[in-house]
Amino acid sequence: MQVAPGEAASWAPLRASGDLHHTPDDRPTYHASVSVYLDHAATTPVLPEVADMVAEAMREVGNPSSVHARGRAARRRVEEAREDLADALGARPAEVLFTSGGTESDNLAVKGLFRHARDLDRARRRLVVSSVEHSAVNDSVEHLVHREGAAVTWVPCGRDGVVRVADFAAAIDDPDSGGAASVAAVIDMWVNNETGIVQPVAAVAALARERGLPLHTDAVQAVGKVPLDFAASGADALAASAHKIGGPIGVGVLLARRDAPIQPISHGGGQERQLRSGTVAMPLIVGMSLAVRRAVDSRADEAQRVGSLRDHLLAGVLERIPGAQVTGLWEPGDVLRRSPVHAHVLLPDCQGDSLLFLLDAAGVACSTGSACHAGIPHPSHVVLAMGYSEQEARGALRLTLGWTSTEADVLDCLAALPEAVARAQRAYAATQLRAAARGA
Question: In this predicted structure, what is the pLDDT of residue 334?
């Protein structure tokens, strides 16, 4: 099955058939034990043509760093993919650095920017970071705090999930923290991975640039979902990943301006501009290039299609579950201030983890808004930062759509949800009664 550039309708036969196990010519593409997949923000089924391209490329032998003919052929495919990715994302080819995914890209940017600034000026050891970042950023920051003497200023967000430019300015210029002269880097994600709320990255980047500070943005959930142009954003570094948009797992990019003040965090062959070492994964890279091109070219039409499903899903949850809340900015039809794929809700008097398992048993695959460390569930730091209570945050549910999503998926989810919530609420009430009895 070949999909022409920007032709989102070419995916329709797979969606409409209700059978995502095979393409029309019976090539296997997506196998799952669930009937409804609403966890696209975690990973998205690989586009059939991407899977075909990766498989074809894996049959080619040649290290892109080798100088013989096969190595040069592999290098040519990598560089063609780099050029296409740059064009799709508003960057220059030299600004595209291939990595293993969003997490590595975030680590390279956060740690590399900090270490470069600190080594030039020991006074610059403070990171100014939004309070709603992905754990790849948060854990990198915490590592620098605990192991390398960094300081961090967390910038609060509003109830709508937006971290405002004025609050970034106050955090950067805070005299009690050393002002702008103490800052190594500013970090503001483009689209939140839990709620889908879009942040004012370009305005924050302009603010940082006025003060001579670099800005990194995690755009893993932004590519192909909302308008994105690296050059126009003013960011110095940007992280993206393939598997959120129908590409293969295990490959991503860090877009880094040629003058971005970043140090490498790993060492070896220096294949990617001396900032990232390791043999580049040509088959995954060409697959990512194709997936990004398809996602970007079809973004406007697909945002309207999927955004309509998101609105139906959110309205249906509010209608069926008394006390349910939609987190953050949401206006039906708006696909610019909130990602069109994200439906994030808080359900009362239940634990999201229990609800997750109940929905899974009913054939609906989704996720909670909590992070689980060492098997211990914690309320989402994103929801808490928005001003919700711990109890409210524990009822978070993230339902995310993608290229395979259909109206039938929404209807099936809404049909399964009331009973799952009722059972989760009964389980929560029983837990509370047992806890009260033990405390009596």
Answer: 98
> Confidence class of residue 376 from pLDDT cuts 50, 70 and 90?
low
Q: Identify the pLDDT of residue 437.
A: 83
Q: Where are the domains of the chain?
A: 69-296, 299-434
Q: 299-434 has which CATH code?
A: 3.90.1150.10
Q: Which residues are catalytic?
A: 372
Asked whether the beta carbons of 343 and 410 are under 8 A apart, the reply is no
Phi, psi angles (nearest 5°) of residue 338: -135, 135
Q: Write out the H or E segment, with its range, that includes residue 52.
A: helix 48-58
What is the CA 381 to chain-centroid distance, rounded? 16
Q: What number is the average pLDDT over the span 331-358?
A: 96
> Distance between CA 42 and CA 379 in Å, rounded?
18
**How much is the CA Rg of the chain, to the nearest whole Å?**
22
Fold type of domain 69-296: Aspartate Aminotransferase; domain 2 (3.40.640)
Interacting residues of 275 by C-beta distance below 8 A, sequence separation 6+? 97, 108, 112, 254, 256, 262, 263, 264
Measure CA of the first residue to CA of the last residue in the chain; give whole Å: 65
pTM of the complete model: 0.91
* The pLDDT of residue 369: 62
